[in-house]
Task: structure prediction
Amino acid sequence: MRYSLDAALAPSTRFTMTLDTIKQPITRELDVFEERFRESMRSNVPLLDKITWYIVRRKGKQVRPMLLLLSARLFGPIEEPSYTAASLVELLHTATLVHDDVVDDSNERRGFFSINALWKNKIAVLVGDFLLSQGLSLAVKTNQYRMLEIVSRAVKEMAEGELLQMEKARRLDIKEEIYYDIIRQKTASLIAAACCAGAVSTTTDEAIIQRMWLFGEKTGMAFQIRDDLFDFGDDDIGKPLGIDIKEKKMTLPLIYALNKADKSTRQRVINIIKNESHKTEKVAEVIQMVRESGGIEYARQAMYGFRQEAFDLLDQAPDTPARQALRDLLIFVTERKK
Result:
């Protein structure tokens, strides 16, 4: 799959917009959502309430709620169904993050201790289960079965993508098309569900609903490739350089580099990933090989290609402040420095 940078928008030096500026069309609605989301996590069990309060306190950029509410605003006013959709998506997203930290044995997330680091794996798994059940219950209580169907599809794909990645990591034989399958399921599916559920909350037009799923999917693909690029760069990104290599994750820059390498180089790099990825100097050797191969630029072009596909889908929506905000948000997530 090859893309031209000519089709992409301008590089990061021309984009200085902040998230606060981008969210202006839905600032009030995001405040309402935050209150609804906090309320949806409440529990009568003191320990659980303490942990969910900790989760809320360390929230991230809220990209998914922004995508969902802006997608809703594209086609109608934001009312109760939109808030339900946003809370549902964020509850299930948070549940998957808690479970992911257990699976990855990770002690940190976004600069904070993970739930499993503070309260151990058993409690973390149960907290993730609680959040998942809260999301399902919220959808059922409000009769939002279509939204539940959309988000359930995403959760299924996320699990399948994670397992596919684990299977392929054992052999390090991931081809480019398999990589795209993995990130489409692992990352892009939930972003697609957010955009799709937002549209469902304000329109019944099936063509629009399916188009917003595709818009979210293309956005998610670009988002994940940008994340992969951080592993080979010099930006302050909040995670150690080369962490994906240490975890034996085959990202697009690395896949490209291996495809371009001669047989001996390829074997040496695969041996490092399999047997020596715990050694900092060996990881640095792999990073340097990827940089010299052109893998960084190749992945960046692919990212811009997916972004342009998302722009093309978005351009079919009404020309409103919400559409411009979605466009700006898409640029933001692909030009972000961390």
